[in-house]
């Protein structure tokens, strides 16, 4: 029997959603506590927030979720930005601000997100890396409730969450916007779960499409429901006529694409099942309503299709409104920066799309690599950006310029592209002709999209200011731009020391209670390994079906990042109609090659490891 581990005390810079009260673990004694280590840039963390919502509702009198915000980007260390994110994403539990990752290290977290389960007596009983743990958590909570109710150590009752005051603004954390005929604008009002039509001034409310409550429902404008919608794409007139709707909306948290009839505001689901994608990569066309999606974040009409920035799995997908089919367009699901043919390239949470005036180039805001990239002639290339952990606010030649988590792009008629450089609070411009990056506006509150108006003006979706902002005339001219040589940052997660030569990578997988590995349709597990730089691994890169891999690490390389993707198929054990489940996790593990270091690297796929 392993020794019980007492949960480290919760300490940080401050608390949110507690009414100003600082919580201690002793205040939560008698409750089951799930500490959710997250960062608000991370789409996988947003998935977990959504997975936890029904558990928080079901177990409201015995379960307390505590969000521990351990940031990746510099902007995420700003307490005001964190407070905005907590509201933006509907976080209805206490949140501890952990700006220096002290709690992250105390709880030995190694990936965003990580969950730590603490029993009513204050002991850590499980840790879980990644997403997809809702069912396993529910079973574990049931076991803990039974055990501690019998012991008399479970205390039922309300938790410590105190909701903040409800703000009054027309928009609340708008995401994306598109221009309509006549100059009106349609805006995804993400935190109010609806689409809003504004007059050409960008302020006057014309109508709202959607009830404003989080949900999933088709129907007329006042009854339809979305969950944190983002990207919007108008269809060409001839396509809209056949499809039966005029615009496609990315219903991000519902993992759906929705069709909107602009004349009436009627909403219909056109792609997605509502389940989050956790499958294998293929290049087939699928019936659009039978395929799972994963956090579609933006949309653009390109290559005679709707291209989808599938942020949740680091890919681009396509959707054909006429054939009503969908499939993968670019990316392998590996979260990193690698150029090349579309099917082999790597991306990291693509969140913004825009098409060049001549239709030849699709610009992509690849947010987690802080990069601007583009698709052209079947190849994905990088214009600005250096990697998954390099960011800052630096203008000048593109090869040395830095951005910080951009969410939007807007192609201009002269061939250049504007970038909503979200975490720098700026609009940047990249000119392919000169290879230069400049800053055209700053001091903005988390700009998430840029829209070119019919008169040549530029509107910025200033998300954290809850408004659209018009750039000053002349901002796009050479005289209006500035050159910033700001700070350079690199996220320094503590690297894992590994030995040069042979290293065994072991993926530790324990099925959730009541489940077993499922080999009905072939091998139940899959492991994909790569490295950045590739020279780090002399042997061991590639795909296999065994959750253990012999790696050979090059001692001449000081270190790098191991990219590991593992998945396991399980089914319910000993039941007549067993449900099937797929657990998947992606890791980017910083490693340092050290003589005499460990020759084994264990990672937990489903962390039901006490």
UniProtKB/TrEMBL annotation:
Ranges: NHL repeats: 403-433
Residues passing through the membrane, by range: none
Gene3D superfamilies listed in its UniProt record: Glutaredoxin, TolB, C-terminal domain
Pfam families in the cross-refs: NHL, Thioredoxin_8
Name of this chain's protein: NHL domain-containing thioredoxin family protein
Keyword hit for Repeat: yes
Alphabetical list of InterPro entries matching this protein: 6-blade_b-propeller_TolB-like (IPR011042), NHL2_NHL_rpt_dom (IPR045302), NHL_repeat (IPR001258), Thioredoxin-like_fold (IPR012336), Thioredoxin-like_sf (IPR036249), Thioredoxin_domain (IPR013766)
Domain spans labelled Thioredoxin: 1-146
Protein's UniProt keywords contain Protease: no
Entry keywords, A to Z: Repeat
Family annotation (SUPFAM superfamilies): NHL repeat, Thioredoxin-like
Cross-referenced PANTHER family: NHL REPEAT-CONTAINING PROTEIN 2
Species of the source: Micromonospora rubida
């Amino acid at each position: 029997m392993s020794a019980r581990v007492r949960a480290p005390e919760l300490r940080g810079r401050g608390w949110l959603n507690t009414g100003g009260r600082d919580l201690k673990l002793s205040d939560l004694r008698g409750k089951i506590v799930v500490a959710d280590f997250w960062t608000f840039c991370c789409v996988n963390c947003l998935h977990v927030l959504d997975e936890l919502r029904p558990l928080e509702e079901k177990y409201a009198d015995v379960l307390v979720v505590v969000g521990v915000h351990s940031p990746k980007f510099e902007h995420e260390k700003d307490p005001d930005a964190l407070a905005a994110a907590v509201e933006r994403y509907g976080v209805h539990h206490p949140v501890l601000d952990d700006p220096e990752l002290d709690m992250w290290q105390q709880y030995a977290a190694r990936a965003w997100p990580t969950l730590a389960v603490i029993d009513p007596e204050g002991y850590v009983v499980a840790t879980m890396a990644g997403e997809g743990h809702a069912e396993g958590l529910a079973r574990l909570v049931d076991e803990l409730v039974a055990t501690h109710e019998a012991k008399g150590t479970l205390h039922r009752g309300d938790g410590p969450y105190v909701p903040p005051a409800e703000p009054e603004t027309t928009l609340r954390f708008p995401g994306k916007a598109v221009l309509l005929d006549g100059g009106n604008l349609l805006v995804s009002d993400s935190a109010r779960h609806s689409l809003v039509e504004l007059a050409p001034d960008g302020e006057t409310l014309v109508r709202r499409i959607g009830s404003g409550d989080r949900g999933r429902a088709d129907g007329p404008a006042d009854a339809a429901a979305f969950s944190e919608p983002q990207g919007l794409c108008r269809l060409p007139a001839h396509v809209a006529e056949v499809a039966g709707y005029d615009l496609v909306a990315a219903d991000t948290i519902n993992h759906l694409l929705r069709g909107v009839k602009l004349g009436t505001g009627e909403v219909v689901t056109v792609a997605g099942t509502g389940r989050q994608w956790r499958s294998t990569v293929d290049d087939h066309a699928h019936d659009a309503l039978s395929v799972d999606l994963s956090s579609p974040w933006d949309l653009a009409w390109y290559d005679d299709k709707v291209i989808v920035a599938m942020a949740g799995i680091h890919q681009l997908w396509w959707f054909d409104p006429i054939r009503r089919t969908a499939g993968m367009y670019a990316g392998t699901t590996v979260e990193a920066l690698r150029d090349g043919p579309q099917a082999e390239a790597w991306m990291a949470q693509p969140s913004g799309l825009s098409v060049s005036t001549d239709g030849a180039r699709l610009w992509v805001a690849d947010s987690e690599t802080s990069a601007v990239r583009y698709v052209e002639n079947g190849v994905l290339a990088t214009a600005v950006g250096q990697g998954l952990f390099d960011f800052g606010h630096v203008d000048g030649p593109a090869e040395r310029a830095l951005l910080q988590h951009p969410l939007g792009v807007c192609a201009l008629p002269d061939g250049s592209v504007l970038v909503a450089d979200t975490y720098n609070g700026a609009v940047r411009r990249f000119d392919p002709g000169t290879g230069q990056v400049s800053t055209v506006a700053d001091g903005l509150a988390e700009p998430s999209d840029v829209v070119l108006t019919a008169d040549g003006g530029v509107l910025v979706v200033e998300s954290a200011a809850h408004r659209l902002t018009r750039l000053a005339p002349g901002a796009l001219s050479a005289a209006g731009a500035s050159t910033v040589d700001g700070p350079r940052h690199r996220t320094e997660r503590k690297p894992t020391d590994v030995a040069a030569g042979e290293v065994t990578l072991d993926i530790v997988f324990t099925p959730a209670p009541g489940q077993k590995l499922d080999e009905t349709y072939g091998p139940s597990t899959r492991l994909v390994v790569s490295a950045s730089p590739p020279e780090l691994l002399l042997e061991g890169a590639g795909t296999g079906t065994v959750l253990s891999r012999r790696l050979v690490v090059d001692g001449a390389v000081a270190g790098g990042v191991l990219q590991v993707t593992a998945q396991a198929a399980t089914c319910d054990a000993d039941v007549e109609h067993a449900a099937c489940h797929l657990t998947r996790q992606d890791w980017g593990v910083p490693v340092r090659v050290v003589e005499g270091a460990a020759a084994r690297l264990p990672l937990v796929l489903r962390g039901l490891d006490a």
